[in-house]
Design brief:
Length: about 475
Amino acid sequence: MNTAQFTPAGTLTAEDLGRIHLIGVGGVGMSGLARLFLTRGLPVSGSELREWPSLAGMRALGGTVHMTHEPSNLDGVDTVVYSSAIPQDHVEMVEARRRGLRVLHRSEALAAAMTGRRTVAIAGTHGKTTTTSMVTMVLQQAGADPSFVIGGEISEVGSGAHHGTGEHFVVEADESDRSFLIYRPYLSVITNIEADHLNTYGDLATLEAAFAEFARLTDPDGFIVTCADDPGGRRLAQTLRAEGRRVHTYGEAADADLRLSEVVSSAQGVRYLAEIDGRSLGEFRLPVPGRHMGLNSASAVLTAYLLGLPVEAAEAALAAFPGVRRRFERKGVADGVLVYDEYAYHPTSMTLAMRTLREVAGEGRLLVVFQPYRLYRTRDLQAEIAAALGLADELVLLEVFGPGELRQPGEGSAALVEAVPLPADRKVFVGSWEDAPVEVARRARPGDVVVTMGAPPISLMGDELLAALSARAGDAGGSAATAG
């Protein structure tokens, strides 16, 4: 079990960090932090081994990117920042300690950046990236110019981080390694609580206790928001209210403080009516489909209400919400086949995503290209992940992405594919990345929807799928690919 301890938020500021170096800077979380520091005018460098799309933006802002991991990258550096994916024996971690540099976990560096701001922290097993993006856009629409760091990029904005001039700092709070416990929110949102990251927590009861601890760190003069439709959220609200804490809930449940009704989801988006304490707030619309997206947006509406922002700002921001990259992101169309990318890797979020994609597919089929994320999750939730994948019409399965994990006999995607309840001719485990586009081009038909789903690297495959489908169309004299 992971029992890593992090230093609670204190008086350290971003400016106290001096020259900052981020190990593995290409990842979404680390690149967002780098962007935040750079837009704050701080000197930033980072190291990486793969040319992630985010690196171009970092360079454009004046950051230095080393495409190697080596001790000399730390020359002139004051603070080294790492994520939980970086092992303690990493060459740059070892060198940083040898030189006596300040070494901070990503969450500790982020906490320093939040010093002096009113933090709005969004946590939960599912939906926190989308919800954080929605809350950010609502505050922007209201003219609050918040700082923010999100575990994804808001589509069309092209950024997951920004240093704003306003008093609020919106942050996605990661529970996977307990690091969310260093934050001290003014307003905390818990979207839902389900069994995940059990390599850290061991069981659901310990995970729920951590979420309760996170909520208790909320400013006594602030607000705690939970989902009344989620069993874990309901239990948390009951526990906290019994302690005398102020909790505000949202959802379709009859006893929710902010209640949704007449929820309708289609390929064109979601709409619903909302009321709070029996008072109508009017109709809200989202241009992205999925009932779960409507539920996420309701937490943003409630957040705006509690912060005293105009409800009209929430209505306008949500109506224009462009989505988040890697969350139901349309990559393009080729030879009559729509290609999407989706970050879901937990069985609950996978199921919700595929139900929404079926709304889009209509009469077409749904073909899923899935890369499982982490061996422990794939092993512990194999039956549930297999059942979710069984909702597809066709499955192309890649090997588990589990950096730093040791594979035991019988673990991995070869075992998972056998458990998926699809006929043998409608599922396949491919041993290499290059085989996946070939399989998609062989299996997909015009009118189908293809989605790449799962671990971070799979997000890079969309363009290759479009190219393979386009090449197939070219061979047959058909249509080429269209992006977006």
